[in-house]
Amino acid sequence: VLDSALLPPGRFDRQVMVDVPDVKGRIAILKVHAKNKRLTDDVDIPIIAKRTPGFSGADLANLLNEAAILSGRRGKEAISLLEIDDSVDRIVAGMEGTRMTNGKVKSLVAYHEVGHAICGTLTAGHDPVQKVTLVPRGQAKGLTWFIPGEDASLISKQQIFARVVGALGGRAAEEVIFGYAEVTTGASGDLQQVANMAKQMVTTFGMSDVGPWALNDPSSQGGDMVMRMMARNAMSEKLANSIDVATKRIADEAYVVALQQIRDNRVAIDAIVEELLETETMDGGRFRELLSQYTTIPEENWPREVVMV
Q1: In the chain, what's the furthest Cα-to-Cα distance?
Q2: Residue 297 has pLDDT above 50, yes or no
Q3: What phi and psi, each to the nearest 5 degrees, are found at residue 49?
Q4: Which residues are catalytic?
């Protein structure tokens, strides 16, 4: 970041913004940093690149260095996909926590995470599952990772709605499997995501029956309290109520879809959870292999190969 004193007209003719690399750039960068490291045959550079959107070149170098350190601690002579996977988790989600020993809690977390994976995988337009794990990291008891699409700046209404359904899959699984009285606080972060996505669909992207309007006043997002109050008062009470109703409708419709998917695929969920409780981590390939034995996965939800040109 350059000081403003260096940026008056005439000092620099142009400014060049360097964005984070796309998937092809990440593949090339990873290959450079992997040259002086010994990797096992199971390490697939394109898969790592697809799992690390938003990573800069320095982040990718740090990733491989972390993996090398883990390999050394574990007494291995080469970096395997396991060390790279653990390094990505550590960078994105935080340090590994204490593993769960309580059978009931572990089972509940397993159904919660598989609920996310099931609802995401079976809702057309959602990103494919990368892995499901019961290994705690940060504040999370378990995690479901998805392989995100490359262009996050251009997302369709179908894709956003699919993400809302996927985010509600954990709560839906808790309700269907254990009963409404047994739903837990584990979905608090998911519900916050749902509220944000549904609200953006209505107020930012014009994807509701309120109309194709951008209803978020930029001045209401600033730090000036007076401007925020003026922006809030500029909206009529009727319009504010319409926004609330439309936001709730999106979340309610997504939850109905999530509940139905959990009920329709109970046998598959039980089979996947049974294996997950034994292994604690299941990759996306194995998850889709098990799920496809019971139901059909939408074609667009299968992971795609990275094509280099």
Answers
A1: 69
A2: yes
A3: -65, -40
A4: 113
Contact 251, 194 (CB under 8 A): yes
Whether the Cβ atoms of residue 43 and residue 71 lie closer than 8 Å to each other? no
Of 47-51, 128-132, 263-267, the one with minimum mean pLDDT is 47-51
Length of the chain in residues, anyone?
A: 309
Beta bridge partners of 282: 132
How far is Cα 294 from Cα 118, in angstroms, rounded to an integer? 12
- Which residue reads 């009920």 in tokens? 263
Would you give the DSSP letter of residue 78? Answer: S
Token pair for 91: 């960078």
Q: Which two tokens stand for residue 287?
A: 């998850």
How would you write the chain as a 3-class SS string? CCCHHHCCCCCCCCCCCCCCCCHHHHHHHHHHHHCCCCECCCCCHHHHHHCCCCCCHHHHHHHHHHHHHHHHHCCCCCECHHHHHHHHHHHHHCCECCCCCCHHHHHHHHHHHHHHHHHHHHCCCCCCEEEEECCCECCECCEEEECCCCCCCCCCHHHHHHHHHHHHHHHHHHHHHHCHHHCCHHHHHHHHHHHHHHHHHHHCCCCCCCCCCCCCCHHHHCCCHHHHHHHHHCCCHHHHHHHHHHHHHHHHHHHHHHHHHHHHCHHHHHHHHHHHHHHCEEEHHHHHHHHCCCCCCCHHHCCCCCCCC
The pLDDT of residue 309 is above 50: no
Amino acid at 181: A
Identify the H or E element spanning 12.
none
pLDDT at 308: 43
Residue 118 corresponds to which tokens in the numbers above? Answer: 């099931």
Pick the closest to residue 92 from 130, 128, 126 (CA basis).
130
- Count of CB atoms situated within 10 Å of the CB of 125: 20
